[in-house]
Design brief:
By secondary structure, the chain is of the alpha/beta class. The protein is built from 16 helices and 8 strands. It has 2 domains: 234 residues, P-loop containing nucleotide triphosphate hydrolases (Rossmann fold, 3-Layer(aba) Sandwich); 39 residues. The protein has an 8-stranded mixed beta sheet, with helices on both faces. Strand 7, helix 10 and strand 8 form a beta-alpha-beta unit. The longest helix is centred in the last third of the chain and has 34 residues. It is globular. The structure holds adenosine-5'-triphosphate and magnesium ion (MG). The site of adenosine-5'-triphosphate (ATP) has 19 residues, from helix 1, strand 7 and helix 11.
């Protein structure tokens, strides 16, 4: 079974659209596909796939992990495609308890008995469980748009993925783990894999060897979506350069998808665009990517069950890998020449915009609170 998690650092770049339509395209070419919505708390994949409002989904299973997982797998109108809905009621994927994540991974991997491709639509961000689901495969997809903030977030996502892998492999009590902890305390600037590896090799050759073997199989694939101009396709090169230079990570470029106004009509009619308009430029982009996936090696990522199990059981590690704030990562991109001064200005501007938006929201809440107080509510 090919496992294809679809992630992005930034939200709203087309993960759900791509997951749903890739699932359709692969099912149409004869694959037995399961599409799972793991964007818990913000699940909306059923709208993209045109599935009726789901009665049960992953949330139902997580409420009782001993229940029958088959109950939450629904047939769809598309031959060969089955669908697992998410849940908007339960808080995001990041809040899953280790036992819940563990049970879910086990059930998802067990699908292999009657499934060729499992596509997982992940939530935005770099929370630990999102990284763990992404690491179920060596060939997960990272979606970015050409916007510089999106590119930056994609890189941040990949950096956190590599460090999550390190933590998973360098078990507690190993010299490599102690080294990683110590260097982490020194700050994000020091966290450059090519600089760390020789030291790890010296102090803990066994852990080093394991990590290198895993990295050899980790080749995330980038999709640039919502492209208007062919030149914008180059953004993936920025990610590639920074990943090679700072993470010793080889990323693949899976494809480019153009902005397509037909998508709005397709979404409104709740029919995936690959069915609504197979000849649309967006659908063509999806079919090209589906072909590439089918032609590539079905290389499974070989974290052993035990490794996955222990990674999920590590409750001690914070819910989020917080290798300092995003601004530290800007340095990686700047130093490798991937980010121009213009890009940097655009990033700062967009952050300022986000801050001013937050301030406005904050003021709005303050206003509401003071009004409520003035009316004598007992808060
Ligand atoms: N290539 C495209 N052309 C036109 N519209 C697009 C394209 N890609 C995505 N969209 C639109 O952009 C919006 C965001 O897409 P989508 O919901 O798939 O993103 P997402 O990454 O899953 O978001 P979230 O992080 O909120 O889950 C949707 O309205 C979708 O229809
Ligand atoms: Mg989505």
């Amino acid at each position: 079974m090919r496992v294809i998690p679809v992630a992005s650092g930034k939200g709203g770049v087309g993960k759900s659209l791509i997951s749903a339509n890739l699932a359709v395209a692969l099912a149409q070419s004869g694959q037995r596909v399961v599409l799972a919505d793991l964007d818990l708390g913000a699940s909306n994949l059923h709208l993209v796939i045109g599935h009726h409002s789901p009665k049960s989904g992953i949330g139902t299973f997580l409420g009782n992990i001993n229940s029958d997982f088959n109950e939450v797998i629904a047939e769809t109108d598309i031959p060969g495609l089955r669908f697992i809905a998410g849940d908007t009621e339960i808080p995001g994927t990041a809040n899953l308890r280790p036992t819940q994540r563990n049970a879910l991974v086990k059930q998802l991997l067990a699908l292999k008995s009657n499934t060729d491709v499992l596509i997982i639509d992940l939530g935005a961000g770099t929370h630990q469980s999102i990284l763990d689901f992404f690491l179920l495969s060596g060939q997960g997809i990272v979606v970015t748009s050409p916007a510089v903030t999106s590119v930056l977030n994609a890189y941040v996502f990949l950096k956190n993925t590599v460090f999550r892998l390190m933590y998973t492999i360098f078990g507690k009590g190993t010299a490599a783990n102690a080294y990683l902890e110590s260097i982490r305390k020194e700050g994000a600037q020091k966290l450059y894999i090519p600089r760390m590896l020789p030291e790890i090799k010296k102090i803990d050759p066994v852990s080093h060897q394991k990590f290198v073997e895993h990295m050899d199989r980790l080749h995330p694939r980038i999709i640039t979506n919502i492209v208007d101009d062919p030149k914008e396709a180059d953004v993936a090169m920025k990610i590639r350069r920074s990943c090679a230079e700072y993470l010793s990570l080889k990323v693949e470029y899976l494809g480019v998808i153009y902005r397509d106004s037909l998508q709005n009509t397709s979404l409104a009619s709740r029919i995936p665009i690959t069915i609504y308009k197979p000849q649309a430029i967006l659908s063509q982009g999806i079919y090209r990517i589906a072909d590439k996936i089918l032609q590539s090696n079905d290389e499974q990522f070989v974290l052993t069950d035990k490794e996955i199990e222990s990674s999920f059981q590590e409750t001690g590690i914070e819910a989020e890998i917080d290798f300092e704030s995003k601004m530290n990562y800007v340095e990686d991109l700047l130093h490798s020449g991937a980010l121009s001064q213009g890009d940097l200005i655009e990033t700062i501007k967009s952050q300022q915009f986000e801050i001013s938006k937050l301030k406005k929201e904050n003021n709005f809440i303050k206003l509401k609170l003071s009004k409520a107080l003035a009316q004598g509510f007992n808060l």
